[in-house]
């Protein structure tokens, strides 16, 4: 219990009934959650009756680590504790229920979802007229608001509302046909399941006798319903959050959940925390100045730092993105080389994923280790995805997305026409596409070549199934045998432009073998169930976490940085168009917010406010050093276009920052040259003396 202030202590000691901790950034909300869990355990509450939920895998991982640290020596006390994201918790619920029914399922990643929507648009002859991402985001928002297709409001004036009404039910039907769930389903399908099956719900309510939620300001309607159902009988729900950090409105989060918590859970105790333990006072002053300009309803907070200082923050003005990146990397190098900082103490934040490229290149050239938060690259690589598709299909033969992906890969004579013929037969006869392959002999308009191809694919899947289901071969061995069987290595060699490229691609496949083998070493990858769990986890990106551990500079979008803290933070691209984001500024041109990590939205003042909160989130990640950088110009379609400083920079009091001009020079090479020259000079001097 040491290391808590009185308000924190009150929140930790409070045991039963609803509790809301509403407080600004860095005030120890997450710390309250972890300490509270430890306190509950000390009081004899079984770990298996505690569920803590948060939003990102990283946050869940860190929470687990903090608890283990606090429990040192008593680690077994935490056995059975659930700390997870909403999505993986939902996945867990669905997995158990589906297992009880003995059915397999697949999780759609974004690529799968986009492909499906495209296909539906083609079927309803609306192919090119709509932006797929915009429709996806409408569907996603509907699901997050817990609306069924038939519950969508009518809006004849809005073409996107109309098309969504057409696509959404078909999309749901496709998911059902493929025995698949998308990300949003992992929450709302659980709620529907619980609503339909009070017996199932009751089991989970027992599991969640003590429920804790971090970052509550970003919950959506579906998540709220999940929590309300779960908390019903015991009402021991503790939520912590900060309405100033609500940044997922564009994805359906509803800040009213936190603002109205006391109405939803009557008798709730409310605790406010006012001391910030993270950032130096100057950084906090900057954050407070920007957030106090919020115009919408907010809980006024008086946040003060325990770390007085009169250092100023830096606003760096660069001539170009290259110069901005080079400067950022130079600074990081300086901290590491001269100031005893480590790569993991530094973070580079930006508004959109697209901004990462320049800085990534620069770090790579300089040989500085980095990791990209939420970067899924490894498992997105083609050859890895192909192999995973085989495994997914083997376990769930209704998974048409995976099937289509590998049906003719490597080439086995099933051309596009054949695929379409098979699909038509399947549709007419009410089969899945896989069933059409199994019954290809009964179909007369399929070419001999395609027929042979189908047989060979069927054989491959059957053999793989046997290895997994009957022989219980470990997953890495299954994957290797599969590669053998389909001749993946040969195909990679034949289709790569250079031997080097082929080696790289094959290296990715071996990377997957290694990941599987590591998993096996940790225990359990011999059974279909383990492999299927692993594949699900990969899709949710928590299988890849181990790849990205270690001492590395963190690169992250602002959204991905929520809840994290770093000694040194560089926030790039503080310019109109990036922050606030372009799509927020534009008139409702396409109304096409993407559902990717970089947000978006329409041009309402509310969206600018959300961008302001996002800026606040970024600023409050920094402990000691904050650098806000911007470019004077950026190349757009090859031409340099002048850029306007972000309006949020204007809200920073002049006495809190120094502005510097960044020179246009590469990250290190000049310095390296200089060092060499100096060494030479020193040597010459030595000779002369
Ligand atoms: P955010 O809003 O960004 O999620 P938060 O409110 O969850 O922030 P924490 O991450 O829990 O804040 O705490 C911020 C930092 O302050 C952490 O490094 C934490 O260990 C430290 N801290 C919190 N409370 C105390 C305390 N009473 N004494 C010393 N350090 C503290
Ligand atoms: Mg936190």
Automatic annotation (TrEMBL):
CDD domains: DEXQc_UvrD (cd17932), SF1_C_UvrD (cd18807)
Domain of life: Bacteria
Positions of ATP binding: 23-30
Keyword Isomerase: yes
Record-annotated UvrD-like helicase ATP-binding domain positions: 2-280
Alphabetic keyword roster: ATP-binding, Helicase, Hydrolase, Isomerase, Nucleotide-binding
Residue ranges constituting the UvrD-like helicase C-terminal domain according to the UniProt record: 281-563
Record-listed E.C. numbers: 5.6.2.4
Family: Belongs to the helicase family. UvrD subfamily.
Name of the molecule in the record: DNA 3'-5' helicase
Species per Swiss-Prot/TrEMBL record: Pendulispora rubella
The organism's taxonomic lineage, starting at the top: Bacteria, Pseudomonadati, Myxococcota, Myxococcia, Myxococcales
